[in-house]
Amino acid sequence: MRFLLYLIVYPFLWCISMLPFPILYLFSDFTYIIIYHIIGYRKKVVRENIAMTLPHLSAQERFIIEKKSYRHLCDIFLEMIKTMTISEKEIQKHFVFTNLDVYTNLEAKQKSIALMVSHYASYEWVISLNRKVSFNGYAIYKKINNPYFDQLVRSIRSRFKANLITNKETIPVILSNNKNKILSTYGFASDQSPKITSAYHWQKFMDIEVPIHIGAEVLAKKYNMKVVFLKVEKIKRGYYQASFEILSENAKEVLNYEITDLFIKKVEQQIFEAPEYYLWTHRRWKHRR
Questions:
Q1: Looking at residue 140, what is its pLDDT?
Q2: Distance (Å, rounded) from C-alpha 251 to C-alpha 219?
Q3: What is the mean pLDDT of residues 108-115?
Q4: Assessment of whether the complete model's pTM goes beyond 0.85
Q5: How far, in Å, CA of 177 to CA of 188, rounded?
Q6: Minimal CA–CA distance to 91: which of 132, 50, 140?
């Protein structure tokens, strides 16, 4: 049954990926009408998240952010599909790294790198970084239940030399690479809510005390990695720029949770600057004090 679903959906996805960008975004506008106005996908969650975290705004201002966030959500969903067939030249035009030298200077120091990113703007096209660097690139992700779609996602990412590893695979892969002296960059999306059973550190995020993922910091300390934050900004529809900000070059010497807290503060700053580009559909504040 799952294979049959894949056979039905895949040709449709491939056809979408072949659309030129202007038509792709017209299709995104149509998708927005379905997702927001007809289905109302997670509208209650989005509304509650925005109300909790941006209480200083008026109801009308929050409503505008809500609608814009859904338009952006549809854009990044279609852009993810576009990645199936997008050329290297196209993706480099649409996703620009403004200060790649900061990253390459860290590579020159011959230490693996923990790259901390958030679910803001375009986190999908960060994979294009792998065509510009020499280290092996790994993106940590949640495995898709349908194995055929899971393999599709893996094959899409591999077009840009990205290796996908699940949470369970992360430590064994890092341990193996460290043992074999394989220098690598590991991408951590650390702004999601961890399981309550793994809530070792609580911090205010958007002025609400919640559990925070500490995996990137813990692994960086244990395996002596450099830690970098990738700030991604949406310049206009379909165009993004990303800049590297060093969080620590000596993670072992930093107080526990200091790197994680600095990351969270940087994500907060992004959200306050343009909240409509954050992924509000996640239940990020479901565990809160």
A1: 87
A2: 9
A3: 96
A4: yes
A5: 17
A6: 132
Q: Are strands 239-248 and 95-97 parallel, antiparallel or unpaired?
A: parallel
Measured in residues, the chain has a length of 289
Residue 10, CA distances (Å) to 2, 75, 78, 153, 227 in order: 12, 19, 14, 12, 37
Look up tokens 């409503």; give the residue.
Answer: 63
Residue 8: Cβ-neighbour burial (10 angstroms; 0-12, 13-18, 19+): exposed
Q: Which residues pair with 239 in a beta bridge?
A: 236
What φ, ψ does residue 283 adopt, rounded to 5°? -85, 65
Which DSSP symbol is given to 201?
A: -
- H/E run at residue 2: helix 2-17
User: What token pair was written down for 41?
Assistant: 């996908």
Which pair of structure tokens corresponds to residue 166?
């699940």
The mean-pLDDT minimum among 108-122, 142-156, 185-199, 255-269 falls in 142-156
Pick from 41, 53, 92: nearest CA to 191:
53
Degrees (nearest 5) of the Cα angle 79, 82, 83? 95
Query: Which structure tokens are listed for 109?
Result: 């120091």
Give the residue from 269, 222, 264 showing the smallest Cα distance to 116: 264
Average pLDDT rounded to a whole number, residues 193-217: 92
Under a CB-based contact definition with an 8 Å cutoff, are residues 205 and 272 in contact?
Answer: no
Q: Which residues contact 242 (CB under 8 A, 6 or more apart)?
A: 95, 96, 97, 98, 126, 129, 230, 231, 232, 233
Element (H, E) at 152: helix 147-158
pLDDT at position 153? 82
- pLDDT tens-digit readout, 70-87: 999 999 999 999 999 999
Strands 226-236 and 239-248: antiparallel
For residue 148, what pLDDT is reported?
A: 83
What backbone torsions phi and psi does residue 56 show, to the nearest 5 degrees? -75, -15
Could you tell me the pLDDT band of residue 146, with boundaries at 50, 70 and 90? confident
